[in-house]
Specification:
nucleic acid binding, three-stranded antiparallel β-sheet, 8 strands, Integrase catalytic domain-containing protein, flat, RNaseH-like_sf, 20% helix, SH3_retrovirus, alpha+beta, Integrase_cat-core
Length: 209
């Protein structure tokens, strides 16, 4: 059995972890994972590292990489496309999914036309992209008894598969055990047109406790 390359395995694991994070961040279709992988590899090639004095990009091209053109992967952007006879132009709300390899430009996905195309000119909406292109997160501190965000969402009690509701009891922690603090995170899922499509919630533990 040939000796395994630990460095390569670690880099592959880093690539896949970043791809999973990017896909979860944007919630684009799994078919876009290839574009996410190419973007991840590009970012790692230009990212500084403590272990080596130069980035792979600097070693290959002989000059430092520019970071001015970098955008948040999966972010929405208005892209002007020439339609028909090229006299009628309009801007579509698309998703940024990658960089061109040899020339300047970006790959975009148009959810309305369900097409992938290349363009250099786009207006990125990264300010509306705080944590997820389709998420609007609200942190709720359980220590506060007052609501901190207006919401019309109603939450039903969790039910087992047999139909019996889950019963919860408040108990004092065992002696010497410090409870972990937590916060509720509520998310609004937005479609490509900016309309709310769903709601999600999760309980997040405070690591510093």
């Amino acid at each position: 059995m040939p000796q395994l390359n630990g460095v390569a395995e670690r880099r592959n694991r880093t690539l896949l972890d970043m791809v999973r994070s990017m896909m979860n961040f944007t919630e684009l279709f799994p078919s876009f994972s290839g574009y996410a992988l190419e973007t991840t590899a590009k970012l790692l090639n230009i990212a500084p590292s403590k272990s080596v004095p130069q980035t792979p990009y600097e070693i290959w091209h002989g000059m430092p990489a520019s970071y001015k053109y970098l955008k948040v992967w999966g972010s929405p952007a208005y892209v002007k496309r020439l339609m028909g006879d090229k006299l009628d132009s309009r801007s579509n709300l698309c998703r940024f999914i990658g960089y061109l390899k040899e020339t300047a430009g970006y790959y975009f996905y148009d959810p309305t036309e369900q097409k992938i195309f290349v363009s250099k000119n786009a207006v990125f909406i990264e300010k509306d992209f705080p944590s997820d292109s389709r998420h609007d997160e609200v942190l709720i501190d359980e220590s506060s008894g007052e609501p901190q965000h207006d919401s019309t969402t109603s939450f039903e009690p969790t039910v087992h598969t047999d139909g019996a509701p889950i019963l919860r009891y408040l108990r004092d922690p065992p002696k010497g055990v410090r409870p972990v603090g937590c916060k509720w995170v509520y998310k609004r899922m937005l479609g490509a047109d900016g309309e709310v499509t769903a709601f999600k919630t999760r309980l997040v533990a405070k690591g510093y406790t």
